[in-house]
Amino acid sequence: MDAGDEGIKAKWYSSVLSETVNLPGSMAENLKGDDITLKTKWTGSIYDSSYFFHPRLEKYRKPGNIKIPFWLTPAKHYTGAAWYQKDVEIPASWKDKRVVLSLEYPHSETRVWIDHVEIGTQYTFVVAQNFELPINLKPGKHTITLLIDNRIKAINVGQDSHSLTDHTQGNWNGVVGKMFLQAGSPVYFEDVQVYPDLKEKSAKVKIELKSGDHLASKGRITLSAKSFNTNNIIQVKPVTVPYQLKNGTGLLEIDLPMGDKIATWDEFDPALYRLTATLLADDGKKDEKEIQFGMREFKAVGRSFEINGRPVFLRGTVNNCEFPLTGYPSMDVAAWERIFKISKAHGLNHMRFHSWCPPEAAFIAADLTGFYLQPEGPSWANHGTSIGEGKPIDQFIYDETNRMSKNYGNYASFCMMAYGNEPRGRQVEYLTKFNNYWKAKDSRRLYTGASVGGSWPVIPNNEFMVRAGARGLDWGNKPESISNYAKQIEQFTVPFVAHEMGQYCVFPNFEEIKKYTGVYKAKNFEMFQEDLADHDMADQAKDFLMASGKLQALCYKNEIEKALRTPNYNGFQLLSLNDYPGQGTALVGVLDAFWDEKGYITAKEFKRFSNSTVPLLKVPKFVYTNNEILNASIEVAHFGQAPLVNAKISWRIKDVSGSILEKGTFDQKSLPIGNCIQIGDIRFALNSIQKATQLNLEVSINGTKFANDWNFWVYPAELPKLKTSFYYTEQLDDQARKILDEGGNVFLNVAGKVVKGKEVVQTFLPVFWNTSWFKMRPPHTLGILCDPKNPALENFPTENHSDMQWWEIVNKAQVMNLEDFPSGFRPIIQPIDTWFLNRRLALVMEAKVGKGKLLISSANLSPNLKDVPAAQQLYFSLEKYMMSEKFNPKYEVAFETVKDIFESPSKIQFNTFTKDSPDELKPKSKNN
């Protein structure tokens, strides 16, 4: 390590370095670097600095027990210069050869010496770094020395860019991909790019030739190609042309007819070819280059995407460079094939790479699996930098995207590109020029200036939009499945893709901690787990995970379906299918950071509502009374390989026991490729249902795997009037106390009157991204947990988690903070708090108070409810419970403890302490 930047002056490249590391790998993997302390200078913004100051978290700040909540914790951390050295043997047979040192994914700036001679410097986040060794290097032993520096220097892409930030685990120092010396012809292929032309059934091959020392050269180039992953191998007739180099460089364009039978590449049939380009010089020098490519055209036609002339809907996820075992991307094809196959198993066909470009292995794997990629330049030019203002980053973005195009441009999966994520600066001017540059240079993919939120300016010449603004669920109002995003996208004349859709949080899965067997540890999870135990809820962790997960899945289902039923909508990019361990810990995935399922929804279940073909339901609500009629319309979104001819679509309604109450079949209909395909209506009278019931409506396309289903609830329009013996009150008054002291029963409705817990904002929707990154921006809860077998809920059909029938009860209802309640106390209905605070909360609870029994609700439940059938039914169920012998609360609670909920604020309140990151963690400039 060269923390003091002494090595160049001291000529370390001329000395023997004393330590040993294993490469490929990172310094952290080799346990080189500094121990983690509160003073560690991380690469990344910390918005919620309460960790550094809050007394509650003091124990996690002590040496030996440092547990940070912002991201995963590496074994060691180091930013700065580090030197690597290796002795190599140059064989005599390499005489007169061009010798290249190739380093895949050094991070980030690399200087190279051979023996005592410096041969070059490269700085890139997106491709391998290749260094030419001196010509006629003598055979025998030589020493190669690398100086790798992972600091942000003159070129600042932004400290939160996923190409280098510790948020994404992390800003490593080392070389993590392939490392080799290669000897070859001094006359060689510098670049070969293949441009498919489906209409002409040919491929235009653009070739750049070079020769060392500007040697003159002439000879022949032969191009041959054949498919390699198709059922029948297609052999393309070779083409041979002459070439001539005069000044050491040359450009050729060769048309390669592909024959009458062309195998095209797409998500359904990812047929690939291997092009072999062979150079044979007249003097016997020979070079050969193999190129993987696919015959495909990915275009924007009006407001639609088309692949090979067929409409395509992008069902995507955002990849944020989460690799929790190593901290750097997988460099092998098999690991990326796993990621893409898991994504496809969930019905997806697309992946955006947020402010980073994956290694070549990812493109190879995406080609093989049939996955549409949007890699980006390695920049989030927002936090600490900007574009279009004359900074070095302006040229660097062009350099990096050119490197991406040159190295990965032939891969069929490379369909889209952006500069990066959400910039600031003179972005319209800069990104307009960026788009124009790329549209003129390479037509094989589509370009959008940047992937942005809804408040960013529109770049007018984008070929497609990746924007927020047309996403989210309007569950501040009663849930329905009729609305769409058409109004939000009507201004755009090019295809629209939703930016970072979802971001619905789920409670941490503490079973995941044991998976962190690599160089990073989930100290954040450990901290949350211990804090949960400190708040007397350790035994509820799994239940919190499963209940919040069911709500998360419900949210993703409804948002994806809303997108699929929107005309002229062309895709979404979920944030994301898997968890993001940084930015405060964003548990937004139905999969964990390892791409494994968490247990509350399977890939098969997810794929029902996120697939190439999805039946869709249009209803004005999900909660009914039995004097109503369920009127539903059925649509299909179909983006399959071909139209579905004479499709037969059937439906059935069943109860929780599986009994079918009604079923039917629509007239046969051919389904074109597109969405908003009207199928027909369902009308089901509910008057035969006499008690509160949960029903399920399933729609299937017969003879296919395509089906989808929805739960809805039916309640009696008129409930029996019970003669109650308990005292109903809306304040804990003297009468309530008297009745409790005398052994009576009290129902206390305290909706709107809570003080202890007033700071907790609950909506039906769960936490967005996480409460740390957004400094406790509401909502703060993750749905509710209850026990369906609790006798208090005997007349209120429910599972143990939030579902649509809970909306009118839960949404914007106050919660009670039970911080002073007895150990082990559990409410009947328990809101799940953000894992950063782990407050023990209640919506409905019961207790023995004095000699009596008390049931309290901070949701508005009363005998006088109207037009809220689920709330009416829940109150009725609680009434019957309180009138039964089963009403026997387990815990005794002092009257004053209960009363304090309506008088005293919570003892622990969230406080950001600073508006920005703590001063001691801010990067220091050279001037201070």
Automatic annotation (TrEMBL):
EC number: 3.2.1.23
Keywords, in A-Z order: Glycosidase, Hydrolase
Residues of the Glycoside hydrolase family 2 immunoglobulin-like beta-sandwich domain: 187-296
Catalytic activity annotation: Hydrolysis of terminal non-reducing beta-D-galactose residues in beta-D-galactosides
Record keyword Cytoplasm present: no
Entry superkingdom: Bacteria
Keyword Hydrolase annotated: yes
Top EC category: hydrolase
InterPro entries from the UniProt entry: Bact_Beta-galactosidase (IPR050347), Beta-gal/glucu_dom_sf (IPR036156), Galactose-bd-like_sf (IPR008979), GH (IPR017853), Ig-like_fold (IPR013783), Ig-like_GH2 (IPR006102)
Family in the record: Belongs to the glycosyl hydrolase 2 family.
Name of the molecule in the record: beta-galactosidase
